[in-house]
């Protein structure tokens, strides 16, 4: 059986809503990470078999297969195709999975995987809003089949985050303490230069904009809960953001032929579904499934990246899996760094790879909750 290697991974800084990347066309934003990846690895771009990019709300600047467009905007060969993937928040993690599967199957040798999202230009759920303007219903909530199966109940990430907090007995204070720590970890990573090697600056913009140096537990405590809830506020939720990231996945043959130096290998990839109304609980069964399939224990991992869609998601996951929070999102997560939905999976992979090397660790696990009650799990092994 062949292997799928990670040769390199790179990302843009994450821009906050209305920030440094807000005016950048999504194709150019994606192209920036792709071009940086090609330049850093020195790989022959003409040898790339495919470009697989995650992106949600593919309208406007993100329409028309942005994976293909970003590759062309980067000035790279016409004959290399591209495809855009939508698994909601896990889109670019799924792009890495598809790339690894292509290599593992022997049908491809070099694939660029990643994602892009400009949430400033195209708000979250914009595709649903535009659909309504043209007289279409939402994708699921008004479906007769959906209503027959799940009933006429609110399906919302905010409701899910609130339900998770209640079910796992996670207080508002618990979540605010976790959110504050996310900001402190991200600020320490920035000040310590830990992101420098993984970021490809966009002109003079080279630092993530999300972390708030002036935040405090007192300020968080003063925020009003999201309508209909009691514990979830903006302080314990991920930030709306803009970014792109790209990862080069290669076969052993490509590594040898092109003189590449792999940095890690894909040890495991899987995806699982959970209750779509609860929506955000998927990382729990997905992690259990990955451990069962690999025979690994939660203590075998040096690092975890669990997307901070909401603080309650990560805290519930840690309670259920027994994972050490001291090894989870060690450089901060989406609450501090932001969550550019279509790019987040590849952004997490990039940060996880670099931090695993910095620590000299061996195994790391990445997972994230996704719309529809889904979750991907990727396990990598540092080489």
UniProtKB/TrEMBL annotation:
<dbReference type="InterPro" id="IPR016039">
    <property type="entry name" value="Thiolase-like"/>
</dbReference>
<feature type="domain" description="Thiolase N-terminal">
    <location>
        <begin position="5"/>
        <end position="251"/>
    </location>
</feature>
<protein>
    <submittedName>
        <fullName>Acetyl-CoA C-acetyltransferase</fullName>
        <ecNumber>2.3.1.9</ecNumber>
    </submittedName>
</protein>
<dbReference type="InterPro" id="IPR002155">
    <property type="entry name" value="Thiolase"/>
</dbReference>
<dbReference type="GO" id="GO:0003985">
    <property type="term" value="F:acetyl-CoA C-acetyltransferase activity"/>
</dbReference>
<dbReference type="InterPro" id="IPR020613">
    <property type="entry name" value="Thiolase_CS"/>
</dbReference>
<feature type="domain" description="Thiolase C-terminal">
    <location>
        <begin position="261"/>
        <end position="382"/>
    </location>
</feature>
<dbReference type="InterPro" id="IPR020617">
    <property type="entry name" value="Thiolase_C"/>
</dbReference>
<dbReference type="Pfam" id="PF02803">
    <property type="entry name" value="Thiolase_C"/>
</dbReference>
<dbReference type="Pfam" id="PF00108">
    <property type="entry name" value="Thiolase_N"/>
</dbReference>
<keyword id="KW-0012">Acyltransferase</keyword>
<feature type="active site" description="Proton acceptor">
    <location>
        <position position="339"/>
    </location>
</feature>
<comment type="similarity">
    <text>Belongs to the thiolase-like superfamily. Thiolase family.</text>
</comment>
<feature type="active site" description="Acyl-thioester intermediate">
    <location>
        <position position="89"/>
    </location>
</feature>
<keyword id="KW-0808">Transferase</keyword>
<dbReference type="InterPro" id="IPR020616">
    <property type="entry name" value="Thiolase_N"/>
</dbReference>
<feature type="active site" description="Proton acceptor">
    <location>
        <position position="369"/>
    </location>
</feature>
